[in-house]
Amino acid sequence: MRLVVERVSKTFADRRGRDVVALSQVDFTVESREFVALLGPSGCGKSTLLNIIGGLLPLTSGQVYFEGEPRPGRPVTATVFQEFALFPWRTVRANVEFGLEEVGVSGLDRIERTRRYLDMAGLAGFERRYPHQLSGGMRQRVGIARALAVEPAVLLLDEPFSALDAQTRTLMMDELLGIWERTRQSILYVTHNIQEAVFMADRVVVLSRRPGEVLDVVPIKLDRPRHSGQQSSAPFVQAADRIWGLIKSQAEAALLESEGLAESGA
Amino acid sequence: MAVERLVVVDRTAFLRRPDHRTVRVIALVGLVLLWEAITRTGRVSALFLPAPSGVLVEGWDMLRSGQLLVHLGTSLARLAWGFGIGAAAGIAVGVAVGFFSLAEAVVQPIIAATFPIPKIALLPLLILWLGIGEASKIAVVALGVFFPMAINTYAGVRQADPLLIRAAVSFGAGPWSVIRKVVVPSALPMVFAGLRLGAGIALLLLVAAEQIAADAGIGFLILQSGNLMETTRLMVGIVVLSMLGVLSYWALGALERAVIRWRH
What we know:
The structure holds 2 protein chains of 2 kinds.
Chain A: E1 2-13, E2 19-30, E3 35-39, H1 46-53, E4 61-67, E5 77-80, H2 92-103, H3 107-120, H4 136-149, E6 154-158, H5 166-183, E7 187-191, H6 194-200, E8 203-207, E9 214-219, H7 234-256, H8 259-265
Parallel strand pairs in A: 3-7, 3-8, 5-6, 6-7
Antiparallel strand pairs in A: 1-2, 1-4, 8-9
Helix pairs in contact in A: 2-3, 2-4, 3-4, 6-7
Chain B: H1 21-40, H2 52-65, H3 67-99, H4 101-114, H5 123-130, H6 134-158, H7 162-170, H8 175-212, H9 218-227, H10 231-259
Helix pairs in contact in B: 2-10, 3-4, 3-6, 3-8, 3-9, 5-6, 6-8, 7-8, 8-9, 8-10, 9-10
């Protein structure tokens, strides 16, 4: 199924009761089997937009819909959270099973699918651990397996690797790309990191700072499967430069703004 | 010029807190031995301070004659019913009040108004309503347990991580799923803290109720022995109470470790 975000605006009241426009007339799509990155400087409302798409936040105007043939028992979205959001009282296996329980997959089917996605995420042998016994990278693998297991129409990832150290992040990006090559699961990937977006995505939707508007949609013309050698290639550098040109002045403005204001838009 | 050597020493030594396991045992045993020694000097009348050995012998006799078991059994039955009913009601109300804003609006002012009442003051009223039998004693224990349970469970539910609740909802969980799979497990540590608080209060109220209106139970045994100046029997009752308190604390700790496996 394809995801359509159509003229979505979001206004909310700040602490003093004044209206703040977080998103203004945002338009873009995620086609079936496509990997789209949503990129913007801090305070551009990209997490707000992801929450709206995930049905966790009401929008002010516009609409979000999915087009195509719905498959029963398959939710339209599943989210991988920046802070992992694993249930500490559930083992790795039970965390991955959570979504399947809620969509009503039971019995052998649940056991089989749980095992398949545990294997895919590199968690074989860790099924009985609790989240606190895992490293950050392993925890996010559980978060990814949990979201993949429900086989959503579009997988939403909210800065999934930004809480990890740099080396782990590089490894996890390769792994996510590997999973995408195998499943061609439609992905909407939120990030503030240009290299990350260009390296992984088919298209990069660039958002401006508040009010968040689509500045441009940059197609990435790099061969698949992607490999780290491409990061010094001309198309890669050109795309990264073009995106940096779009948001540089905005990132500078974000730097000068106080934490409190930036936070209220997140 | 003289060359000096300044060796670095650990400056945190005085902050260390070793376990002193042997000291713990010696302290308790030493107190009992001191008590025994004082009674053996003959300067203190056994009427005021019976010897620990005497208390032990008396306890053993009462156990063999079966009268201790009658009192203990009566008290334990009241405790179990009162504690069980109060804890179950407290947890249910705490979860409802913590999760549903309407329940919070209805119940919170009522709890705020009734919580400060010393529960033992309600015993005469409960006897009027429920009679002088078991029901009124069970009710006063249940009331005493209910409040800390409800308040602790409420606090535990309010502390549930909103991110985990949102994650559950994002995977399609409805309100009952969220309560069962996120809110209740989040609240469990606070629930167990409430159970320990409740156990202490239950013992206190039980003994008070048994000393006001009862013809059996540890509280009754202590009061009656006091009236008859049978100090040794009185001491047996007090030692049994102390053991009950220690035992319930230990049992709740074991239960907590069994239920909350994910923490250590």
